[in-house]
Amino acid sequence: MEDLNEYLLAVDYGNCFIKTVIYDWSLNKSTAFEKIVPTSITLRNDDQPLQNTAYIMENGTILGDGGGRFDCTRVSSVKKHIGDENWNVSIPQRKHILMNAYDIMKESFEYIYDTVENQTFYEFSKAIVTVPVCFSEMQRRLLESAVKREGYEIQEIITEPFAGMFSCYEIFEGMQDGEEQWVLIFDAGGSTIDMCLFDIKRKGNQFDVRNTAAKGLRFGGDDITEWMYQTYMKEAFEPVLQQEALKTFQARYPEKYRPKEGTEEFQKAFDNCWKESFDYHMSYMDIYKIALSNHSSKPEEKVNFERIHYIKDVNIQLSYDELVKMLDDHGMKAQIEEAIKQMISLSNMYKEEISKIVMIGGTSQLHYFRHLLQEFFAIPDEKAEEYFPVLTKKQNQYAVAIGAMVYLLNSENRFIVKSRAPYEVGILEENGFRCLRDKSLWCGDESNPRMVKLQKKGNGVLGLKMYQRFEEDGELYPMGEFLIEEATFPNAKCRVGLIVTQQNELIGIFYQNGRLENGIKKYLSMEV
Predict the structure, then answer these.
(1) pLDDT digits (tens, 9 = 90+) for 453-468
(2) Cβ atoms < 10 Å from Cβ of 454
(3) Collapsing DSSP states into helix, strand and coil, what is residue 331?
(4) Which domains does the chain have, with CATH numbers?
């Protein structure tokens, strides 16, 4: 892999910020940890990471706090909508063409490509990108396609909490030879809360790192903002946001080109302006959420928030108790605790065995989550510091990107990694989903071969469509289809075993007859 004229790139495409880490081979440092060079690609000369917000302008996509309020279209939370066929944004700056999340993400990576290349003067080489735990296979492939189209050579796509584990230098370096620790990575971001449970053993200078379980919940900081608005703020803010949206609408659509009032086109255009105004102002709610959460020592005392950015003359008063009640009413505590219980059960361990809880992601700054985890694991206050490593704001922001780079480099094979896929794999039959591979199997292990019926595709080809689901009775996501010659299985029946590789590739092992002990195997990868 080593080439002094190339660099490696790790990208954490978060829901609120894009964090990047560049590795320069020419630095030639002694350990993988020292080789990491955090680099924030920004439109400004400061230390803030890119916002995951696209400002669509006539000359291209600009990321971050660029452009003006009214001469560009602001699009938030792009990653959350990738693969959603019903989500798109009308872009006035481009003659009102519709752009979906894939289009915007592709241009985002083009911007990152050009900016990094200009900063480093190196030719592009290899990249590793992170995604939420509950990112489906189709979403992964769309992301990979968007990245590859802009010149990156993707080495791997890994989950965000999995990557975050490898940024925990102090945990690794502080372990004694032969020591074992159970570590929970709790990653609370803008659109998801992701968790990974690890069993780590030190053997000399190497570490056996087993990712025994992972769970992803489809809500995060943006949802908390929305809940706060709907529960406590809507009545006061609605008129103000209507005025803001009207100003944006009038500035963006001059009267000569304005859609006719009362039409569907008019309503959609105005709704986009309203959502944009809402997102813009509510993005400053993070300051208030954290201030309110940090007031947990006086849970009943009201905290004033006199304005949200430029919205004046609106005063909201909330207490920490009200914040907790709102989150509990939306099932946040119950779902997090249930997810951890399921991970503990799958890992065949006891919660009392937990050694460290590492909290990363911007939303993890809310004390609500620290209190929830401390209560669940019954950690007394006097021992809390032993369990919860203290991270600086920058360490928190870059944990996923730095960890992804450490994992990609894995200098001198310090980490011997083993994982379980966080989803079931199966087929769809008349009676519904039939699981062929469950979450208990390790990546690389073959599932017990099961008899399946293949579908005739024509032209002498048989097919077997595969689906994944992250939760029992949860939504099914298509993964692709295995294709095989009909002559191999003339009765369109066979046994199939499934392997999920460490790189998240699904391989099917098709047995030519029912007798597994002497059956001829065919190894196939899926067609998408």
Answers:
(1) 999 998 888 999 999 9
(2) 21
(3) coil
(4) 6-173+393-418 (3.30.420.40), 221-328 (no CATH), 424-525 (no CATH)
